[in-house]
Write a structure and sequence with these properties.
Helix content: 25-40%
CATH class of the largest domain: Alpha Beta
Number of helices: 17
Structural class: alpha/beta
Largest sheet: 8 strands, antiparallel
Radius of gyration: 26 Å
Number of strands: 25
CATH superfamily of the largest domain: Aminohydrolase, N-terminal nucleophile (Ntn) domain
Length: 607
C-alpha cells in the first residue's frame, strides 16, 4: 500500500518523481505529493486525489530542484485530504518526510511532542517523524544520530525518505518491514517502493534490509546498520525490461498480464523439468528430512492462498504428508502446532505481505523450516525464510493477480513432484506423465486465450447481476474460490464459491430463477456427481457457464467453455483462465477501472 519515489542527481527532480508515482498507481492510493529541495528550502506540493492532479498545483512547474521525495498515500490515519497527504514537514520547515507503513505508538509520541511545544497539522501517524527528527537534531546537532534515535522511538512498520535543509545535497532513507529499493545511476540515484517504478532509469538496485539507514547523494550510497556502523551491500542487476511494466498496446495491464501467462508459466518451469530428475536451485532437502515431516503448512493471503489450496492434493496424494492451507492473517492467532518436523511454505507475489511475513517469523521461532515462494528476488519474505524459490512472472501491475497465481500453482506443483521424487512415495510413471503435462501448459493456455469470444458474450449477458456463484469439486472447488475472488475484486459483484456437494446442505436456498452460476468440471472421476449438482441449479432457473475439459453434452447450460484435457492436479492453471477473462469483461462492461479497483492495493504491507 502507498508508494514512495525519490531522486537525487543533476536533472530536475519533479518530472522524475511524478513519473515514478504514476507507475506506482496500481498499489492503491487516495492522495499524492512531492517535496523538492530548492536551494536551501524544501518546497512541498501535495493534494488528495490522483497523481495527475499534481500537474495543476500552482508553482509546480517552476520547481528546479534536483533532489526530491514523493508519495502516494492510502489512508490509515485520517481521512483523505490535502493536510493528511504526504510529504509532512516539521514545525520549523527543516525536515520533510514521506512514510509507508504504520507507526503503532504515534499517539504516545504525539503527546510527548505536544508537551514539548510542537504543533500538528494533520491526523496522520507520519507527522510525528519529522518533528521527532527535529527534536533530536536540536539536542545532538548530528542528523544521522537524530534519525537513529527517532527510529528507536518508532514502533511499527516503516519505509521513510527524509529531506533536510542542513544537508541539502543529500537525502536519507530508513526501512523496517516495508519495501524500499535504491536504483543506482551514473551521477544520480533513485528510490522506490517497487522496482518497476524506476526500471526505465536503471537496472542496478540495492535491496534494503530491516533497520538499515542510508545516506544518499548523487554520487554515493552509504549504508549503516541500526547502530550507525557502516556496512557493505551488494548491487543486484534486474533482468526485467522497462517494457515489462508498460501496457504494450493492451487496453489494460490486467488484459496484458492475462495474455502473458503462457510465457510466465514457461519461465517459471524453466529448466526444472529438463533432466531425468527435477532440479530446484537452492533447495537441499534430503530424503530423510522430508520423510520425517509430520505436516506441511501452506500459508498465504488472498489469491496466493488459493494457489496453496489448488496444490494441496499434490503434496498429500503424491508425498503422503498431511497439508494444511491457512490464511496468513489468522495463522498466528490460533496457536498452530509447529515443531522441527513441520515445513511451513509461505507464498507472496510481492514478498512484502505483512501478514505472511509475520506468520513466517512465528514458524521460524518454533523450530520449523520455512520456504518462501515469491516473484521478487530479494524481497522481505525471501530474506526471512530459510529457503526461497521464485516464480518468474515478471512485474505484475494490475491489482487483481492473474499471471502470479498461475505461476504460483505451477511452481507449487513442481515442488510437490520434487518432494515425491526425493521421497520415492509416488509411482515413477505417474510422475513422468505429470511432468509432461506441466510442460504442455504454456501451449494449452495459449490455445485457450485464442478463442474466448463465448466468455465475452456471456459477460455481456450477466454484467448487471448482483450475485453470482461458483461451483466445483476437488481442485475445481479450489479454482472456483479464485474465480469468485477475481469477480469480487474488479467487478464489485457479490459472489461465493461452494463445493458442489455442499449445495444441498444450505446454499441451494440462494438459487432462484435467473441467478448466474459458473461451474467447473475437469476431473473425470468427479464428473458424474458434478453434473448432478449442476442440474440442481439448472432446474431452479440458473444461468450456467460451464468450464470443462470433459466430453459433456450441453444439457441446459447457457454456455460451455471447452479447455484442453490435463491432469486434475494442474487443471486449475487452465480452468482459471476463462474465469479471469469473464471477470475482466464484466468489469469493462460496467465501465470500471480494471487495473485499480476501489479500496484495494497491490502490496498489503500493513497487518
Amino acid at each position: 500500500m502507498c508508494g514512495i519515489v525519490g531522486y537525487i542527481g543533476d536533472k530536475k527532480a519533479t518530472p522524475i518523481l511524478i513519473n515514478g508515482l504514476l507507475r506506482l498507481e496500481y498499489r492503491g492510493y487516495d492522495s499524492a505529493g512531492i517535496a523538492v529541495m530548492e536551494r536551501n528550502n524544501i518546497v512541498v506540493k501535495k493534494d488528495k486525489g490522483r497523481v495527475n492532479n499534481l500537474y495543476n498545483l500552482e508553482g509546480i512547474d517552476s520547481l528546479e530542484g534536483t533532489a526530491g521525495i514523493a508519495h502516494t498515500r492510502w489512508a490509515t490515519h485520517g481521512k483523505p485530504s490535502k493536510e493528511n497527504s504526504h510529504p509532512h514537514m516539521d514545525n520549523s520547515g527543516s525536515f520533510a518526510v514521506v512514510h509507508n507503513g504504520i507507526i503503532e505508538n504515534y499517539h504516545e509520541l504525539r503527546n510527548f511532542l505536544t508537551e514539548k511545544g510542537y504543533k500538528f497539522l494533520s491526523q496522520t501517524d507520519t507527522e510525528v517523524i519529522p518533528n521527532l527528527i527535529h527534536y533530536y537534531f536540536t539536542k545532538e546537532k548530528d542528523l544521522l544520530k537524530a534519525i537513529k534515535d527517532t527510529c528507536n522511538d518508532l514502533k511499527g512498520s516503516y519505509a521513510i525518505e527524509i529531506l533536510a535543509t542542513c544537508e541539502n545535497d543529500k537525502m536519507f532513507i530508513v526501512r523496517k518491514d516495508s519495501p524500499l529499493v535504491i536504483g543506482k545511476g551514473n551521477g544520480e540515484n533513485y528510490i522506490s517502493s517497487d522496482i518497476p517504478a524506476i526500471l526505465s532509469y536503471t537496472k542496478d538496485f540495492y535491496l534494503l534490509d530491516d533497520n538499515e539507514i542510508v545516506e544518499l547523494s548523487k554520487d554515493n550510497v552509504i549504508f549503516y546498520d541500526k547502530d550507525l556502523n557502516k556496512i557493505n551491500k551488494p548491487i543486484k542487476s534486474i533482468e526485467w525490461g522497462a517494457a515489462s511494466a508498460e501496457k504494450d498496446g493492451y487496453e489494460d495491464f490486467m488484459l496484458k498480464e492475462i495474455n502473458e501467462q503462457p510465457n510466465a508459466i514457461r519461465e517459471t518451469i524453466g529448466a526444472k523439468l529438463d533432466n531425468g530428475h527435477i532440479e530446484i536451485e537452492d533447495l537441499n532437502f534430503t530424503k530423510e528430512y522430508l520423510k520425517n515431516l509430520n505436516k506441511i503448512y501452506i500459508v498465504a493471503c488472498g489469491t496466493a492462498m488459493h494457489a496453496g489450496l489448488a496444490t494441496k492434493s499434490i503434496f498429500e496424494k503424491l508425498c503422503k504428508i498431511p497439508v494444511e492451507v491457512d490464511i496468513a492473517s489468522e495463522f498466528r492467532y490460533r496457536d498452530p502446532i509447529i515443531n522441527e518436523k513441520t515445513l511451513a511454505i509461505y507464498i507472496s507475489q510481492s514478498g512484502e505481505t505483512a501478514d505472511t511475513i509475520a506468520a513466517l517469523k512465528l514458524a521460524k521461532s518454533q523450530g520449523a523450516k520455512t520456504l518462501a515462494i515469491s516473484n521478487v528476488i530479494g524481497s522481505s519474505i525471501t530474506r526471512e525464510a530459510d529457503y526461497s524459490i521464485y516464480t518468474h512472472a515478471g512485474p505484475e501491475i494490475a491489482v487483481a493477480s492473474t499471471k502470479a497465481y498461475t505461476s504460483q500453482v505451477v511452481l507449487l506443483s513442481i515442488l510437490g513432484l520434487y518432494f515425491a521424487e526425493k521421497m520415492e512415495t509416488a509411482d515413477l510413471e505417474e510422475i513422468k506423465v505429470l511432468k509432461k503435462d506441466i510442460l504442455k501448459l504454456p501451449s494449452q493456455v495459449e490455445e485457450i486465450l485464442k478463442d474466448l469470444k463465448e466468455v465475452k458474450k456471456f459477460a455481456k449477458k450477466v454484467y448487471k447481476e448482483k450475485d453470482m456463484f461458483f461451483l466445483g469439486r476437488g481442485t475445481d472447488y479450489a479454482v472456483s474460490l479464485e474465480g469468485s475472488l477475481k469477480l469480487k475484486e474488479i467487478s464489485y459483484i457479490h459472489s461465493e464459491a461452494y463445493a458442489s456437494g455442499e449445495l444441498k446442505h444450505g446454499p441451494i436456498a440462494l438459487i432462484e430463477n435467473g441467478v448466474t452460476v459458473v461451474a467447473t468440471m475437469t476431473d473425470k472421476k468427479l464428473v458424474e456427481k458434478s453434473i448432478s449438482n449442476v442440474q440442481e441449479v439448472v432446474t431452479r432457473g440458473a444461468k450456467v457457464l460451464l468450464i470443462t475439459s470433459e466430453d459433456i453434452k450441453n444439457d441446459g447450460f447457457d454456455t460451455v467453455i471447452r479447455i484442453p484435457k490435463t491432469n486434475p492436479f494442474i487443471s486449475p492453471i487452465l480452468s482459471v483462465i476463462p474465469m479471469q477473462v469473464l471477470s475482466y469483461y464484466i468489469s469493462k462492461e460496467k465501465g470500471l477501472d480494471v487495473d485499480k479497483p476501489r479500496n484495494l492495493a497491490k502490496s498489503v504491507t500493513v497487518e
